[in-house]
Amino acid sequence: MFLSVAYAQNTPLQITHLTGNCYIFTTFHDYKGSAVSANGMYMVTDAGVVLCDTPWDTTQCKPLCDSIFRRHQQKVVLCISTHAHEDRTGGLPFFRRYGARTYTSVFTDSLCRIKKEHRAEFLFKNDTVFRVGEQTIQTYYPGPGHAPDNIVLWIKNAGILYGGCFIKSTEATDLGNLGDANTNAWPQSIQNVKRKFRNPAYVIPGHQGWANKASLDHTLMLLRKYKAK
Q1: Is 46 a catalytic residue?
Q2: What is the predicted pLDDT for the residue at 10?
Q3: In the chain, what are the domains?
């Protein structure tokens, strides 16, 4: 199921049902003169909604919350950002004001301070399992890749591996923004994820499409091509 919500700017907020009580939201931001998509995810529980990353286009934070409430009669109660870049953390101040508990890793928070990115209210030091209502979401730090602090999120009961920008969509033709990347460590970090979560039903990258779940292998292929240049 696909829902397009035409709020701020020319490109609408998009919400797509993934499976069960999990949905992908996509917002768009101008990057080097083009509108570039960024994916986040939300999970509905009987105790509120869990958000994986914030909208890149922060003008879409309120429309996202409004749409979630109209659709599910639930509010966002927890938000986890996966690394210290604007497309993941930009909406943290909004969600804190909204009343959600906002989280990043201690590592991510240290980089947010240095990079002057928005910071979460609460921190976790090690891999953590969050329980909200009847649902759980697990954080996992695989090692450096797209960013030194990037984590992935695992929703076991739905088989969803949410990769953020650590995982490149099979639609991607290059590795994107490498300003904070560690291309030497990234392949091993991908292998760590593959060993940890062996048979995901869904693999969600931070940008572009997610229909093809071969994104981990595709990311490895892009890294090999990059190294071969």
Answers
A1: no
A2: 52
A3: 2-228 (3.60.15.10)
